[in-house]
Specification:
The protein is α+β, with helices and mostly antiparallel strands. It folds into three domains: about 90 residues, Arc Repressor Mutant, subunit A; about 60 residues, Alpha-Beta Plaits, CATH 3.30.70.240; about 90 residues, no CATH class. It is built from twelve helices and seven strands. The radius of gyration is 20 Å and the shape is globular.
Length: about 280
Amino acid sequence: MVTNTKISAFSLDDFEARTGSATSIIRTITGLYLRHQSASVPRTQVVELATAAGVPATTAQTAISRLIDKQVLDSDSPSTLCVPSPAQAMFERGSRRIFTPRQMSQASQWCLVAYSLPEALRPLRHQIRKHFQQLGGGLVAAGLWIFPEYLHEEVEAVLVALQARAQATIFTVQEPHFPTTAKEAASQWWDLDHLNSLHRQFLEATADLAEDQTQPAEAYRGYVSMIDAWRALPYLDPGLPESMLPDSWSGRQSRDRFLALSQVFKDPAQQFVTSVLGS
């Protein structure tokens, strides 16, 4: 089992949490707002932010305790909360990915990762597979993964954290020569049906949000729910070029919707949070 503490920030990522659950909502609030506070935040204020996002107070208290257990939050006193360093690193990395969704062009380069591990290191194989999938990697064959080149640094960071960098070779290539067509290759290397389903779920989850919801409290609730529904997608979806995507791909519409609503909700939502936290 890998024990390197460098992997802790990656291990805190949670892409299996149910969107809209109390724990998921408060995790989103933590990433959006609490991690930017210079001092610990009163627990009562965190509960107030949670209730404003639609989480009942008693449920919020339970969810906060769960996030403390998961080391996403830390209780440095019975009445205050802060964000520990590994969670800060996780949220910082996530912020770059979530708020700047990227899309490959035909001219974009690719990153290939090849490695060979003995049977004795099977747990390490599992860890690599888990984290590579969560980075949006495509599995070409056993021990061979493909990513957009713009994920190169994140791929290398995972290998270093897992103490597997010495077993892996990373290639940067301009154009793979696909065995059949680019679309067929993409459908084999990535689970595009699942990704498309996630995009449709995001569109359904945000269907009731409107760009005229600009009152601070209303914008805050909409913004938190939208980010909560979106935050896993920019990880799991690598942003493949149009030529590799099916005609029914929902990612185009969900990305446009995310960007449009973000522009409307962000500032008034921040006004509401400032009124609660006082900073």
